[in-house]
Design brief:
The structure holds two protein chains of two kinds. By secondary structure, chain A is mostly helical. Chain A is built from twelve helices and no strands. In chain B, the strands form three sheets. A six-stranded mixed beta sheet of chain B has the order 6-7-8-3-9-10, sandwiched between helices. In chain B, a hairpin with a 2-residue loop joins strand 1 and strand 2. Chains A and B meet through helix 1 and helix 6 of A and strand 1, helix 2 and helix 3 of B.
């Protein structure tokens, strides 16, 4: 199992470096530019701007508000693209490419294959966020003399790591879709629809009280992007819910993959009943 | 007592409503090279995938080394080397890295000197990235992966596909060496000459059903004999119009016949026309195979 996990991490090495650097550049650009237009942002009242609220940007008049709106709010969206690509590529993608056949014929239980791939994805996402966190700390240090804020370097680093449970859920949704649906394209599409639905569903639910009932069903409900989260951190209960959802998704992916006929790529309802 | 390395009973696989294989009953004994013949789509790959638990049967059961392919598949597959028909590799790896990766995933450190010896015999440069390889070289990588751990059972799906004739011979030598070591080979192919060359027994699969299993030489003998009869004066055209006998060629001095039954009748008739010579012309497995499919 450990060897398999190690191999899976090796396969993800380029993705970790590439996405780590890419999201770090995004972070450095957004956070680093704050001193250039903080005066203008101070006048930027978003309270009545429904569009901004719909995409989760709630306040930009302070450094914490700006960072939460750009970095805390949008970096997980960027990383979710990686999560969907990586998650759907893990089983469905490898099956499409024909690589999975040789792997499942090795003396490895299928549950270990799924678990190792899920763990490798989890570690890859964590390492990307460590890189991003370091970039965020570096950027804050670079502009510290120009910014007056209670947000510390540790807060910046932890705010990156707090994204992990959320992007992990997105990756595991994609992994489950890859274990269940016939090919990568469908799995990625299904995961994207679920992700986008959750994101905008949550934003709308935050704007309209009538949608309160659906909030517990949306993953973004368990990820806070209010400015205070930078200094106070995400709620432990929310983290626990997201980690719990990820674990359930991994179990479902194991269940789906155990039953899957590899190399066949049929829709679930087209599959023959197996003894 | 012979040990069945592969056994299936009533093995049936469907892809939705589409037929994969139907009620396949087969046994492959220890130390045997079993050739699995059939055209594309007959069910060769499906059978091999069901044995390796890549796909699951809708009914029937399969065992490797007496172990249930599904319930005890992991244990059974520790002793199996597999070469898929549609080989797909990690293109960014160098070949030796790929071999190390497979060994790591197997949880084994194989005999590297044996692996290197195979690579040398196949003339494979393992220091290059797989994406730089030709199709034939990629196939060689698959051959090495299948053989490198000296598994007790080799399941090879069209192993010589894409290889040049010299390398094909090397692969067939590897198969013979595996047999000489007492290992078992389950070998699917539609190249009949190579099956004839290395296999002890052959199974012919047709439309998902195993239609014949026989020793190679017996299958050839059983099916038909081909005789060329030479005469001083040729007998009339309908002289050999007997049940089970087909005249396939005629020249100025001889008549060639394919005989499924009624050999006595042929000989009696030949004697009446003063036969001068009788030659037996070898029947290839390919011809037997075509006879099965062509309904000759």
């Amino acid at each position: 199992m450990f060897r398999l996990l190690w191999q899976e991490l090796q396969f993800r090495r380029n993705g970790i470096i590439g996405w780590g650097i890419g999201v770090s550049i995004y972070t450095a650009l957004y956070v680093g530019l704050y001193p250039s237009f903080d005066d203008q942002l101070a006048l930027f009242d978003l309270a009545d701007m429904a569009f901004y609220q719909a995409i989760g940007i709630t306040e930009m008049t302070s450094f914490a508000g700006y960072v939460s709106s750009t970095f805390v709010n949008l970096a997980p969206i960027l990383l979710s693209i990686y999560a969907i690509i990586s998650g759907s590529g893990t089983l469905a993608g490898e099956e499409d490419e024909g690589k999975l056949e040789l792997m499942v014929t090795l003396p490895i239980p299928r549950w270990q294959i799924v678990t190792a791939k899920a763990l490798a994805t989890a570690v890859a996402l964590f390492l990307i966020l460590v890189i991003v966190g370091i970039a965020a700390v570096g950027t804050l240090s670079a502009i510290a003399s120009q910014v007056e804020t209670p947000v510390t370097a540790v807060d910046m680093f932890l705010s990156a790591l707090y994204m992990w449970p959320l992007v992990m859920v997105v990756a595991m949704i994609s992994l489950l879709m890859g274990a269940y649906l016939p090919n990568r394209r469908t799995a990625a599409l299904a995961a994207t629809v679920i992700f986008v639905g959750n994101y905008f569903g949550n934003s709308l639910a935050n704007m309209y009280n009538a949608l309160d009932a659906i909030k517990p069903l949306l993953i973004f409900t368990y990820y806070d992007n209010a400015p205070a989260v930078l200094t106070e951190g995400q709620a432990i209960a929310d983290i626990a819910v997201l980690v719990g959802i990820s674990l359930v998704l991994i179990l479902l992916a194991v269940w789906a993959f155990q039953r899957r006929n590899i190399t066949v790529g049929a829709w679930p309802w087209q599959r023959a009943k197996v003894v | 007592m012979t040990e069945n390395v592969i056994e299936t009973k009533g093995l049936t696989v469907y892809y939705g409503r589409q037929r994969g294989i139907l009620n396949v009953d087969l046994t492959v004994q220890k130390g045997e090279v079993y050739g699995f013949l059939g055209p594309n789509g007959a069910g060769k790959t499906t059978t091999q995938r069901a044995l390796l638990d890549v796909i699951r049967p809708v009914s029937g059961q399969a065992w490797l080394f007496g172990l249930d392919c599904q319930k005890e598949g992991v244990t059974a597959r520790q002793r199996v080397g597999y070469l898929p028909g549609e080989l797909s590799l990690y293109e960014n790896m160098k070949a030796y890295q790929f071999f190390d990766t497979v060994e790591a995933m197997r949880g084994k450190n194989g005999d590297k000197s044996y692996r290197e010896a195979i690579c040398q015999r196949l003339n494979l440069d393992t220091g290059r990235k797989i994406r730089e390889y030709s199709r034939g070289n990629k196939q060689k990588v698959g051959v090495v992966v299948a053989f490198m751990n000296k598994p007790d059972l080799l399941i090879l799906d069209e192993p010589t596909s894409g290889l040049d004739p010299l390398v094909q011979q090397t692969v067939l030598e590897l198969v013979r060496e595996a047999k000489a070591d007492g290992r078992t080979v389950f070998f699917s192919s539609h190249i009949l000459s190579e099956v004839q060359e290395v296999c002890d027994r052959v199974g012919i699969i047709r439309d998902g059903q195993l239609v014949a299993t026989e020793r190679v030489e017996t299958l050839i003998k059983q099916q038909f004999k081909r005789l060329r009869l030479s005469f001083g004066a040729l007998p009339p055209a309908d002289a050999f119009a007997l049940d089970g006998v087909t005249e396939t060629a005629r020249d100025e001095q001889s008549v060639t016949l394919e005989i499924r039954e009624n050999l006595n009748g042929v000989l009696r008739t030949a004697v009446t026309y003063h036969v001068l010579d009788i030659d037996t012309i070898p029947v290839t497995l390919e011809e037997v195979f075509l006879a099965y499919y062509g309904g000759k």
